[in-house]
Amino acid sequence: MSIWLIERFIKFGDRPALVHGTESYSYAQIAEKIEHYTKQCSETGIQAGDVVTLETDYSLHALAALFALFELKTIVVPVTTTATPEIEMRRVESRAQWQLKISNTEIEISRYKCPQVPHQLVRQLTREQHPGLILFSSGSSGGAPKAMIHNAQRLLAPFEQKRTRRHRILIFLLFDHIGGLNTLFNGLASGALIVIPAARNAISVAAAIEKHKVNLLPASPTFLNLLLISGSHLQFDFSSLRFISYGTEPMPESLLLRLKKALPATNFIQTFGTSETGISQTVSRSTTSTQIKIEDPNTQYKIKEGELWLRSKSQILGYLNHTMSRFTSDGWFKTGDMVQQTDDGFLTIMGRREDMINVGGEKVSPSEIESTLLKMPEIADCLVYGQKNALTGQNVAAEVVPAANCDHELNTLKRKIKKHCRTMLSAYKVPARITFPDRTTFSYRFKKNRISQPGSQKEEP
User: Fold this and answer.
1) What angle do CA 85, 62, 273 make, to 5 degrees?
2) Do residues 324 and 331 make contact, with C-beta atoms less than 8 angstroms apart?
3) First to last CA, the chain
4) Is 129 exposed, middle or buried, given 0-12, 13-18 or 19+ CB atoms closer than 10 A?
5) What is the pTM of this model?
6) 54-74 pLDDT, tens per residue?
7) pLDDT tens for each residue of 394-422
8) What does residue 339 show for φ and ψ, rounded to 5 degrees?
9) Domain count along the chain
10) Residue 49: in which H helix or E strand, if any?
11) Which of 75, 176, 181, 280 lies 20 to 30 Å from 372, alpha-carbon distance?
């Protein structure tokens, strides 16, 4: 399956491939470690078609173990240690037979006694002699996380055409996330240097950018705003940073303008994808625009009642623990993302269908309100969500984090926020409830977490 990729690692030879802490590794060293782990896993008894949880974070050993398991044509379930409360659930839902844990340079392989027979989709991959990849949704829409299975050979195929480049890419999105894996596969296939920060916080990421002269930072809008708030872009040298790609959640337009003002030499590129369909190739209208166009030979799209539907060559075979109700009989995936399209084909991602606020029948996009709030210099961060209301069903609520230099009393700031919103928004969009927490609520994936808000109410997707 990944023979072409391993052959490419060998071809790249002594070219720097990975920096982790004080250690750096070449592509040849990755290839050697893959060969070592392939032999070790095989001798332990792991064989084609087995489901194996890979419980670790980014490291030389994690990367080598992942590709070794692909070589053995197993079904890999990557589980970052950040998701510790979910580890047992993921073992059970994936019907795992083996656990592979890595700490430092030690690899521990053990049997996991799964009482269930392999899922039919796992059996299908085994018959086809293809490796698989099982990813889990975040469960942010209020339901249990969905276990989805990819044909890993098909998922990796588009990267074979990547041109060799000498980028330095900081890998921020998680090891068990489609965006993180996309960055990893893209970087390794093109011969880039992958930089793993010491921690997933603003200071550690900024320090890694300066030290290793990073060219590309993929991150979420939530994290990029935290980077701004921390001021770390002023403490460290970002002159090497040519590109920031962002995705996983809508980018408030006013936040993008703040980012561009703070980092004028950096180009901002919006990406788009789903765990079900993979990451699509997109083109941004400009570095200061949140409009994108999907231009991917492997992906088709259409819009139905404002919702984006995708059909891709790399989409999942199915779910292990959920119905295929979001897929049509002819293969279209209903993403749940609401969009607006311009006459020349550019899309604006408005947000998740289930995050839309229904105020007396009028639909309100939280990202629109957040963008309006972030136009105020007195506001550093904000989170907008729907709150139950006996008369209108829902109204708009906002968490607001004042800027460090804001000297208004909170009641004064609240009045100023409402006045600002009334001049820019329809009355039903103005936040009816404003609170001032120390920080907004976000998940371990650095995405705004609207589901956990008090009084929030979700509609069925």
Assistant:
1) 70
2) no
3) 36
4) exposed
5) 0.92
6) 999 999 999 999 999 999 999
7) 999 999 999 999 989 999 999 999 999 99
8) -135, 160
9) 3
10) none
11) 280
